[in-house]
Design a protein that fits this description.
Blueprint lengths: L1 H8 L6 H12 L2 H13 L3 H29 L3 H8 L4 H33 L3 H4 L4 H6 L4 H18 L2 H29 L1 E3 L5 E3 H9 L8 H19 L5 H6 L8 H35 L4 H15 L2 H37 L3 H21 L8 E2 L5 E2 L1 H28 L3 H7 L9 H23 L6
Antiparallel strand pairs: 1-2, 3-4
Length: about 475
């Protein structure tokens, strides 16, 4: 009776389709668009792809199912859901809430960068964006990045302020179909391109596609195999939006009568397809104009330096393609940022009993303040520090490292222990099949959540801390 009362009081998605679109929108973000292609190129193309697909239907499936089911079962956000499941495990909910609170500020900063480039290409200034030093001069400016960060954050807050149906679901139903059309369109265009290299040879998009999909075993050693495995597993956190509290929050809005198993299968297919399309869209494009070596540019370098230079080489059509590309990236950034923000806002609402409006304003102020600190990290507060994983970092990188490399594995390991060994997998299986659904991967789920997932997560965690090196 309490659950039904709570469910009525709580916002819900209209139907399973609304949930799938919102969950997929969360996953189709900046991490997918720039990180997936870079890792695929770095780790032997097809080999990374094969590992990623295997992990998606095993490791990723187990984590995604667990989080969505926890959300629907408790009808609570991440901060309070774990406490609801087991009183002694409330600490895990606090860590799960800290993660999106830490990600939101720097994600808004990067979203501001995307907004800046989108406006540049839409106003015919794409050629300027391709010039050397354009990106570094922008992010090191003291005012401009803060303004764009604030605008992007305001857009995210406005959507969350409108609620689950009018905000998250309505926006997802508009942006996601457009986003998919743009990704598919750019992918097809990428495969049809060709360009003359300095040595006179012709590089084509289809040659670039081969780099992406055909496994390269020429330099494979046990070490490189493990590195590829860990990279693919780390990417799944981005691709499926797990370990950030997002899927617990979204799961809490799923109607009790919805087919959870079918929805999770659809999210898996949707997210994997878009991640692969991101690779099809970017790797052939970069290969055509910059060769195999050009694909090695990672993160901001790929998105904000390499891609504008490529659009500039395309001539007149480059301005148009560049504008379409950055509109697509902006939509992807926005659908992800609203999910990150919702994980925090719903937690504040459940824990403190405050209105959505107050929760949005409270988190918006926190994110803006920390976002300004991140922006200043490239000028007034600039410093460099070596991280345990060997990377040289500024403020943004440190926040990203702590949230993604330390806290997210802790949440996932803790969740696997809680569900696999304390509450038992039956807790999740019963929730997923409470309307009589068939759970075809039941034995796989039990094995993954009890043994395989925690083992792999501990290895990933130790590697992130620099304790394991391979």
């Amino acid at each position: 009776m309490n659950e039904n009362h709570n469910a009525k009081k709580r916002n819900t998605f209209s139907n399973s389709f609304g949930f799938v679109l919102a969950a997929a929108g969360s996953a189709v973000g900046l991490g997918n668009i720039w990180r997936f292609p870079y890792l695929a190129a770095k780790d032997g193309g097809g080999l990374f792809l094969v590992m990623y697909l295997i992990l998606a239907v095993t490791f990723g499936f187990a984590l995604l199912t667990t989080e969505v089911a926890i959300g629907r079962k408790t009808k609570q956000s991440p901060l309070t859901a774990y406490k609801n499941l087991h009183k002694k495990w409330g600490w895990l909910g606090k860590v799960a809430c800290i993660i999106p609170m830490m990600i939101m500020p720097y994600y808004s900063v990067i979203g501001g960068w995307v907004l800046k480039y989108t406006i540049a290409f839409l106003t015919g200034k794409g050629a300027s964006a391709a010039e050397d030093g354009y990106f570094s001069s922008f992010i090191t400016a003291q005012i401009s990045p803060i303004v764009f960060t604030a605008i992007f954050l305001f857009l995210s807050c406005f959507v969350i302020y409108r609620g689950v149906k009018k905000g998250i679901e309505s926006l997802s139903k508009i942006l996601m179909p457009i986003l998919i059309l743009l990704v598919v369109g750019i992918s097809i265009f990428a495969l049809t391109m060709n360009h003359s290299a300095d040595d006179g040879s012709i590089r084509t998009g289809l040659q670039g596609l081969k780099i992406f999909v055909i496994p390269d075993f020429s330099n494979i050693t046990p070490n490189t195999f493990l590195i590829t495995l860990m990279d693919a597993m780390g990417q799944l956190f981005y691709s499926l939006s797990v370990a950030m509290g997002i899927m617990i929050a979204y799961g809490s809005y799923v109607p009790s009568e919805s087919n959870l198993v079918k929805s999770i299968n659809r999210i898996e297919i949707f997210d994997t397809a878009v991640a692969i399309l991101a690779g099809v869209m970017i790797i052939p494009t970069v290969f055509v104009f910059m060769g195999k070596e050009g694909v090695s540019a990672s993160g901001p370098g790929l998105m904000f330096v390499a891609m504008p230079k490529i659009f500039a080489q395309m001539g007149i059509i480059g301005s148009f393609v560049g504008a379409i590309f950055f509109i697509m990236v902006l939509f992807a950034a926005l659908t992800s940022s609203i999910s990150i923000l919702e994980a925090v806002v719903s937690s504040f609402m459940d824990e403190f009993g405050i209105s959505r409006r107050r929760a949005v304003v409270f988190e918006g102020i926190i994110a803006l303040f920390l976002g300004i600190v991140v922006c200043l990290g490239y000028n007034r507060l600039y410093f460099e520090v070596a991280l345990p994983n060997g990377a040289v970092a500024q403020i943004l990188d440190i926040m990203d490292y702590i949230s993604n490399n330390i806290l997210m594995p802790i949440v996932s390991i803790g969740t696997c222990i809680l569900i696999g060994w304390i509450l038992k997998p039956k807790t999740i299986l019963d929730e997923a099949t409470k309307n009589g659904e068939v759970f075809n991967r039941r034995n796989l789920y039990i094995f993954m959540v009890k043994f395989a997932a925690p083992f792999l997560l501990v290895i990933l965690f130790l590697k992130s801390l620099g304790i394991l090196n391979f």
